[in-house]
Amino acid sequence: MRTVEELEERLSRPTPALVGDLGRLEGDIIVLGAAGKLGPGLVEMATRAVAEAGTGATVFAVSRFSDPAAADALRAVGAEVTPADITDDGSLAKLPDAANVVFLVGAKFGSFGNEAGTWAVNTYLPGRVAERYAHARIVALSTGNVYPLWPVDSDGPTETDPVGPIGDYAMSCLGRERIFTHFATTQGTPTALIRLNYAVEMRYGVLVDIARTVHAGEPVDLSTGYANVIWQGYANEVILRSLLHADVPPFVLNLTGEKVAVRDVAEAFGTAFGREVEFTGTPEDTALLSNARTCQDLFGAPELLPDDLIGHIAEWITADGPLYAK
Q: Can you tell me the mean pLDDT for 176-195?
């Protein structure tokens, strides 16, 4: 994965298991929030899998598409592009009907100063979408931030452990789950809630943040000493395959990977870059962690593990590959 083209092909490469699952799925697929970090790779993966399965289903890609090039790229891979601002009720009502909905829309981190807007997107909008697609099956992206901080010497919380979000962003994401659950139970809408943390690829993510810090010769902060990371290509696959697991009440899944130590990751990048690594801060006894046992039992292990990703990211940054400012 030395070029953007190679990276994007790998991010969207469907596995035989995904092709088989989408071959059993009835109806079209609509992806809301198709131009975000996850969206383009997931849409392309869906179009490739549907084509291999031969179902004839249409994959609709919905976003505001402020960058026309993003829309053109999705058209080029076979998606039906539908520009729309779904926070507008009129635009939401005009969206194509589809039997399967993938909801990727969300106000992410950085909600300070815009708390009301964060809640509107993360909690109010899901209710409008659930009403619009009452007769579909819905997979909605959530986050592991709905859990409280967890002891770092554990495997993290499972899907049945108590939630305890900290801050407006995390609380609004739990609100999104509660709203989708309400409409699942009152409308009978099969739903899956996917608690993702933290997806990574060569252009962004926890591992890239650490790599950039080491490469720049800056000290690595160890205050948050551990994190879960997962290859984004695997995340795309699991989100799509979860359509067949949507249920009432909702199917809830921790979508994540191995727990990694920030110190170990930084030292691995230091070796790759030929740099001494400086550290600051003392690791806390807790972190935002999740247990992925159920996910791997259902969908298997990811193709790329943290050590693989560290190697690819080190090569990418050494070659001055493009990075997202996220």
A: 98
